[in-house]
Input
Amino acid sequence: MPDHVRRGNATKSKVRARVEHVFAPQKAVMGLFIRTIGIKRAETRITLANLACNIHRLIFHKRRAAMG
Output
């Protein structure tokens, strides 16, 4: 693999890792799999999944803060 390709992959992998770690709980735990007809329904489903994930994270952080 050429050196410039290796450097490009390293740069992209840093971004990819941050993004994929955010969406992993939605895909694994919450079963996020978009199979709808229409972009509006897909957007609604993704929005609800994001909301549920954020509420779950909020509860986690609140409990962690309460523990000390």
Remarks:
- The first helix runs from residue 3 to 28.
- The chain has a mean pLDDT of 84.
- The helical segments are 3-28, 39-67.
- Residues 3-67 form one domain.
